[in-house]
Amino acid sequence: MKEQVLVITGGLITSRETSVLHAARKWLTQVRHSQNVWLDVKVKTVIAEPLLAMRRHMRHLGTSVKNDIAEAYFASDFAPPEPPSLTEVVLTTLLHQAGMPSRALSLDQLLQDDVQNDQLLASSSCIFLSSTYLHDLSELEPIVRRIKRPHNRIVIGGALAGVIHPQWEGMPDVDVLAIGYGEMLVPCLVDWMRSGYEKLTPPEAGRIEDRQHSRFLYSGVPRTTSLDFLVTPDWKLTEAEHQQQYKTIYYESVRGCPYRCSFCNYPYLFDDKRFRYKSAEKMADDWQRYCDTMDIDYIVCLDSLFTMPRRRLKAFCELLVKRRINVKWICYARADDLADEETVVLMKAAGAHQVQIGVESGDQQQLQNMNKACTVEANQRALENCRRYGLTSVVSLIVGFPGETAASLERTYQFLKAAPPDFYFLATFSTRVAGVPVLQAESRRQFGLEAADNLFSMAPYWRHDTMSCADVGNHVRDLDLRIMNEKISLNATLFYQGMLGFQASQREALLDFQQEAVSSGPLTRAAFNALNAWIDRRLSKDVSSHFK
Questions:
Q1: Is residue 141 within 8 Å of residue 171, measured between CB atoms?
Q2: Positions in the chain whose pLDDT score sits under 70
Q3: For the chain, what is the total number of helices (H) and then of strands (E)?
């Protein structure tokens, strides 16, 4: 068989699910392989309630200005086609440079088109499976079994590989777990393939560990903090592969993070602990190339923190303006960077369209518990500056972090009411990622935190001095419904489809539409009340049994 790599990327359940039945089928596949599933079931039920209410409401649209605006918003051309993951583009670019033929497949396609999948799997001698959008082994292991064939070899890389490698021994069908920088590992893997899978040699700074079932290949880390050596992902190659032109593409310019928020594993991804980044000049050159060779409207920056270092941000924005690189862009940002008015003005002038801000809480003590190194006041100034200068704001909030109480959640609600963002995500506190600071012994003692060690759940059980995972789902549900009913902000999960095309002039009409959607179905509300009560009983029993 001629050597060919099949690159498989994506998540089991994506943000662009168009079929409730298809999403439910994939979720049940994951649940069947999970352990202690009730927190995961609770989290998904809380997310599903407003989604179903919104879909029900849209089926019964009347004629009104706000309904017309909502209908136009959801019919936006910004939704299709969704670009493939950046991981796919990077891997296929690296394989192309190494002269190794490859094909690409998303996990969503893998679970739908059996005939074509069988043909691709039959013709591919090696599978590169990215775990970046997978959550735990209950998702990973069924996928590995689905793609394994007697003739192929399987290599797993990505964020989940970086999370589980200290605790995992591999599995019989996985040949290599690739940990660290893919740019440094792909040439080694190609050489391994060309040796007939006989000789696997790590990069100069890397190493190999032979575990019980699989070989663990580590890349090591770059010699400097500069990432200018990284390959520029070839999106034109990907467009040719999929016979599709993309209006939106993804970009990455940093690895790691200079901060150490207690809940976050970004600083430790790629088996690295240093913050590394591309120069402003390298970034501008890359974006210039994309704008000169492709018909793109948006660049979505996937960096953990795009606005650091601030001197790089300033130089980059000035280069975009000087070179007249006219493209809109989206990034993750720290609030204390956006609290500086001049920074927001410069970003907007350079094409910044939307910023995602990890606000996490409106309670100062909770921010200190999280080691956020930011203040409630800075968060408020950032949101006010974004509103003032037309920069769409999307905030994330964590409910249930150690120290959380009904009083701290009330302060978060009042914060949002005083400085409403355009969109919000509510995340339930999770202990899934081992090695983050909050799970270290000192933090566990400080907060009385107990956490289940469970690689087969995306929502392991936990409890601490002020809250338990048996209670947190109802806090999320109550806060979510309150924000929507009081028309404070738009639920980003509900409005994800049209977020790129969002305009400030639509805000009030969409808030009215959202309020109507979540309050117009008393029967739906009653059904979810009963379902939540049923789940709560099982979750509480399971949590109590686990932490005896």
A1: yes
A2: 1, 12-35, 61-66, 76-80, 113
A3: 21, 18
Give the Cα separation of 14 and 118 in Å (integer). 23
Residue 432 CA to residue 134 CA, distance in Å, equals 12
What's the CA gap between 27 and 33, in Å, rounded? 10
Residue 472 to residue 459: CA distance in whole angstroms: 12
Task: Give CA–CA dist 310/336, Å, rounded.
Answer: 11
Of the candidates 3, 8, 1, 2, which has an alpha carbon nearest to the alpha carbon of residue 148? 8
What pLDDT shows up at residue 25? 62
Q: Tokens standing for 494?
A: 């509900």
- Name the amino acid, one letter, at 126: C
CB 13 within 8 A of CB 459: no
Interhelix angle for 507-519 vs 469-485, to 10°? 120
Could you give the 3-state DSSP secondary structure of residue 474?
helix
Q: Cα separation of 413 and 362, whole Å?
A: 7
**Separation of alpha carbons 428 and 469, rounded Å:** 9
Two structure tokens written together for 491: 């639920």
Structure tokens at 25: 């089928």
The string of pLDDT tens digits covering residues 126-146 is: 999 999 988 888 889 889 999
pLDDT of residue 81: 72
- Alpha carbon of 410 to those of 152, 363, 465, 470, 491: distances in Å? 54, 9, 18, 19, 18
Q: Fill in the amino acid letter for 245.
A: Q
CA distance 177 to 169: 10
Tell the residue number behind the tokens 């994309």, with chain if given.
Answer: 290
pLDDT of residue 459: 86
